[in-house]
Amino acid sequence: MKLWSGRFQKSTDTLTDDFNSSIYFDRRLYKQDILGSIAHVKMLSKQGIIPEEDSLLIQKTLFEILDDIEQGKIEFDVAAEDIHMNIEQILIGRIGDTGKKLHTGRSRNDQVALDMRMYLKEEILNIRKLIKNLQIVLLELAKENTQTIMPSYTHLQKAQPITFAHHLMAYVEMFKRDKERLSDTFKRVNVLPLGSGALAATTYPLDRDFVAKELGFEEVSLNSLDAVSDRDFCIEFLGNLSILAMHLSRFSEEIIFWCSDEFRFVELDDAFSTGSSIMPQKKNPDIAELVRGKTGRIYGSLMALLTTMKSLPLAYNKDMQEDKEPVFDAIDNVKMCLPVFTDMIRTIKVNKDKMHNGAKGGFTNATDLADYLVKKGVAFRDAHEIVGKVVFSCIKRNIGLEDMTLKEYREVSPLIEEDVFQAISLEECVNKRNITGGPSEEMVKRAIEINRAMV
């Protein structure tokens, strides 16, 4: 018999039970549901709403149920609909009518909001830890490559020389912001909704601050309608995961490029590559590709929940049962992607010579030649035009700027002297960009130390 069956004259259809039930996926909230119930029942006895001996028995039995679930001794019932009613049904089955007192002063509406907030608080901390592990690996790899020169790109065309360390540090900054966003979201998740009832609170003298303290919540919700119908915290969290996935996907895209025969900047460890069923020479960056692919799936979770919530009137609607699967799926995929991506980066082989040779081509030092002329007194726009013509001439001759003779340079401008070759050397191009945020070895080392202190 269902715990809400009093008003009904017949049993629900079997298909209705299956369709209505969420136990298939919300079963993962069992721990949060039980711990929330224990805090609630403690408060009920503290407030004199139920006898203390009943509260103690319920608490003891809930801990036993928790232990049994974790040992795989309990099979959940689809007919009981969700994790909340399953736990309560098991409780009543073990201690009889005393178990029926647990639900005093609460609704499944504020109960599920509590469970989801408790769950997300824990997962935010878990995901932040995984991001931290990735940052540590990137910082170590950057430290080893502060002198590894490579080309940078705009429009996927070679732009200016930088170091591999500088490129890696761009992702360290991205992942730093991802951690900050999750921390900021944590503040809005960390609000206790329990005590809001179905939508209009309760007549019982609940001590919500006591429950908040028991469960580690910083605040108590101030509007019962909002508390049971709010899923902003889930949407914001999914937004955070979507941005994180986007950063992982951008990085994956570059790794895929770099592994190609056209680049060969890096080589993935065999443990993080796959082969072809027909082409024996292939070594495919499938891990990076899967991370890139899963980003779309995580975006889909965000859009699904946004769409679900867009037309719901206050307060709770059954549509909101659809919040869990997108959230759970996004969490599962991010927690799969981060560790394998981190290990893939940890074991990557950097082909420093290939990177350096890549920076030699494509006239990545052209801007530095223009800057050289500017320092000799030429207006930047004039210097830009002069160097553009020099580049065009070099393209026709299939040579680089460093291959021109001093005589040829002086024909372009009498201001050019022997020191031009030092000015356009790749090492000089990188290291004279010695301002905060620049790619010079000194500045990248400083950025590494700053970030290591923050990780």
Your description of this structure?
The protein has 455 residues and is mainly α. It folds into three domains: 13-104, Fumarase/aspartase (N-terminal domain) (Fumarase C, Chain B, domain 1); 121-145 and 156-204 and 218-357, Up-down Bundle (Fumarase C, Chain A, domain 2), CATH 1.20.200; 359-454, Orthogonal Bundle (Ribonucleotide Reductase Protein R1, domain 1). The protein is built from 19 helices and six strands. The strands form three sheets. Strands 1-2 form a two-stranded antiparallel ribbon. The chain has a two-stranded parallel ribbon with strand order 3-4. Strand 3 (191-192), helix 8 and strand 4 form a beta-alpha-beta unit. The two termini are 53 Å apart.
Alpha-carbon distance between the two ends: 53 Å
> Would you state the CATH class of the largest domain?
Mainly Alpha
Sheet bearing the most strands, described? 2 strands, antiparallel
Helix-strand string: HHHHHHEEHEHEHHEHHEHHHHHHH
**Mean residue pLDDT:** 95
CATH topology of the largest domain: Fumarase C, Chain A, domain 2
As an assembly, this protein is single chain
| Strand order of the biggest β-sheet | 1-2
Number of domains in the coordinates?
Answer: 3
Continuous helix count: 19
Number of strands: 6
Judged by helices, strands and strand pairing, the structural class is mainly alpha
Q: What's the CATH superfamily of the largest domain, by name?
A: Fumarase/aspartase (Central domain)
Estimated share of beta-strand residues? under 5%
Helix proportion range: 55-70%
Which second-level CATH architecture of the largest domain applies? Up-down Bundle
Shape: elongated
Runs in which pLDDT lies below 50 for 5 or more consecutive residues are none
Radius of gyration: 31 Å
